Amino acid sequence: MSRKTGESPSWLGWVFIATVALLCAGCCGTPQNEQKFDVYVQKPDDVKELQKVETQLTVTPEKAALHPDYQVMQEISVPYIPEYRIGAGDVLEVVYGIRYETAPSEYRLEVQDKIGVTFPYHPQFNSTVLVRTDGKITLPMIGDVKAESKTPMELAALLNRLYSKYLENPSITVSLEEFNVKIDELRKAITTAARGQSKIAPVAPDGRIALPLIGNLQAEGYTLPQLEKVVNQKYAQQIRNLNATLILYEIHHSKVYIFGEVERQGALEMPSAMTILDVLSLAGGIKKTAYLKEVIIFRSDGLERPIALKVDLGPVLQQGLTYADLKIRPADIIFVPKGKIDKFNDLVEKVFTKGIYAILPFTTSVTASYYINSPSVLK
């Protein structure tokens, strides 16, 4: 989620900061404790080795069941991962459904409902009236009567009492002629040929979304279930039997981080699945000083521990080879060095201590989330 400069970092930022501290603590030891790269990708087939490492480190239910920081969901043990929180730039789709099942409670009149008032023994007073925006109707002889929020039977009982002053045995009945008018208004507002009864709602820079009938709502910071609950509560105040389902249609603030010999360092938005060449292009390209035989990627997404891999981009740029299966994941950290990497520990200090802290200060929210169990995170 976006934050203004000067605000304290988000909880995710603190997780990231703690991770950096553990990385540095684990990698700044003596030469005999020098850490190693997990994989060195120099040709397309080397990506298979990366996939093997990731498979070995993928958090399985069996592994999760033995760890106190994991949870059981639907009888399956999974890693505890904080729920995704909506951010500015995300796009939601709100799908509207009307529940037509029998409701135990009686229908209560709403503004804009059209009702028929029938006098069986005095038909000259029969009338059809609309519940006004002040919740009242106007009838002959008795004038304005509060109708909104009453059931038809309650309104009929009230009218019989009022008219009994003027008529003998009025026996008035109240019938619904047009009702749930707000649902019809909502249908008109949301129905399109392409999407049916749904509404695309982008999250504005101020963190709000705009929805028909209920207006602007705060969305940033909520999880999807939390916001769905709020939206349904708001609609329930105006429309009965309506159910709104929220779908995260587009995510616009997943990020990848790139540092070193590129034209534009820092956090980059990931609009879709990307390769390492896509990220380099998004960063404005590489500098002449870039050493492409040892481009480094730090990765932790969905793994027991972070891994580090080296990628030789020389064959890619010189021979036109591709690493089609080497996809960049959200929260990956990419470092393009100036020269050959001699010591892994020095690299970690350069990337995390000097690189990330310099480009992403504490006052900036960071969406990278690394989970670390021990100081020795890269083996």
Question: What is the rounded distance between the termini?
Answer: 32 Å
Oligomeric state of shown chains: single chain
Mean pLDDT: 75
Helix/strand order? HEHHEEEEEEEHEHEEEEHEEEEHEEHEEH
Largest sheet: 6 strands, mixed
Indicate how many domains the architecture comprises: 3
Overall shape: it is rod-shaped
CATH homology superfamily of the largest domain? Outer membrane lipoprotein wza domain like
Rg is: 31 Å
Q: Tally the helices: what do you get?
A: 9
Strand content: 25-35%
Low-confidence stretches: 1-33, 361-379
| Strand numbers in spatial order across the main sheet | 1-19-18-21-15-16
Going by CATH, the architecture of the largest domain would be: Roll
Structural class: alpha+beta
What's the total number of strands? 21
Q: At the third CATH level, what is the topology name of the largest domain?
A: Outer membrane lipoprotein wza fold like
CATH class of the largest domain: Alpha Beta
Proportion in helices: 25-40%
Tell me what the structure shows.
With 379 residues, the protein is an alpha+beta fold. It folds into 3 domains: 11-84 and 253-359, Outer membrane lipoprotein wza fold like (Roll); 91-103 and 197-250, wza like domain (wza like fold, 2-Layer Sandwich), CATH 3.30.1950; 114-178, wza like fold (2-Layer Sandwich), CATH 3.30.1950. Helix content is 26%, strand content 25%. The protein has helices at 11-27, 46-57, 61-65, 152-163, 181-190, 224-236, 276-282, 314-319, 344-359, and strands at residues 39-41, 70-73, 76-79, 91-98, 114-118, 127-130, 136-139, 143-146, 173-178, 191-192, 196-202, 208-211, 215-218, 242-250, 255-260, 266-269, 274-275, 295-299, 307-311, 327-328, 333-336. Strand 5 (114-118) and strand 6 form a beta hairpin. Helix 1 packs antiparallel against helix 9 (344-359). The protein is rod-shaped. Residues 1-33 and 361-379 have low confidence and may be disordered.
